[in-house]
Amino acid sequence: MVFLIILGFLFLFIVVGGFCVFFDQAILTRRGTIYRVKTDKKRVLLTFDDGPSPEWTPKILNELKEANIKAVFFMIGHHVQKYPDIARRVVEEGHTIGNHGYAHSVMFYYTAAEIEEEIKYTEHVIKEVTGQTTKYFRPPKAWLRRGIKKKIKLMGYETILWSLNSKDWVSFNHKSITNYISKNIKNGDILLFHDSGNVSTTEGGNRRQTVKSISLLARTLREKGFEFVSIEELINGE
Ligand SMILES: [Zn+2]
Fold first, then answer.
1. Is there a catalytic annotation at residue 104?
2. Cys-Cys link to 26, which of 17, 142, 145, 170 (CB 3.0-4.6 A)?
3. CA 193–ligand 1 middle distance (angstroms)
């Protein structure tokens, strides 16, 4: 009996783990969001979720500066309050802040009023700390009901997902992250990375491979003729 229970848990672990690692749930909720921009220009955008992190965000910022790339950081409101200096550094270095909710709660079952409250409060926190008002929102884990997306648009926000997921939170080697992206990259792609968090927590995690992949990715994609652009350049086609 005990053996069967252990076997059951193992099976569940493999199925759920495999789903998370090999399947990108954003594919299910893309409709009505910006997840890639149609363009004939070889342009891509880097995005980093779940920070700021005192350990990883500064290292990522150093790499981005070295590679001359402007990215979007979808920040968790609670982390912005906890690490205000790092949130301010992101803005000072010319990157864009996005709203990733206050507590990284999955919002699939939220009512429109609950979503509005969470977005507005996070907006307030970001504004207080950095002076920046963001118009970009990314729902935690990409889960969002279709009807709610219109409501978010009425609030003046664009919901931004991604078209290429680096899966950096499972800490693949930086060479395999770059290889995967390089093989699958298309014009107008929005790439997902993380500057904080792991499977069970939104803080910490090991982002060593994320940090290392930035310079290699910049070199590899530029050799293929791609340029890294800001979110405004990508969306407005400037
Ligand atoms: Zn997240």
1. no
2. 142
3. 10
* Cα 76 to ligand 1 centre (Å): 8
Q: In angstroms, rounded to a whole number, what is the distance separating the alpha carbons of residues 75 and 162?
A: 15
What global pTM score does this model have? Answer: 0.91
- Show the domain range for 178: 33-236
Contacts of 100 (CB under 8 A, 6+ apart): 49, 50, 74, 75, 76, 77, 122, 137, 138, 140
pLDDT tens track, the chain, 238 positions: 766 666 776 666 555 555 555 678 888 888 889 999 999 999 999 999 999 999 999 999 999 999 999 999 999 999 999 999 999 999 999 999 999 999 998 888 888 899 999 999 999 999 999 999 999 999 999 988 888 999 999 999 999 999 999 989 886 799 999 999 999 999 999 999 999 987 778 888 889 999 999 999 999 999 999 999 999 999 998 7
CATH number for 169: 3.20.20.370
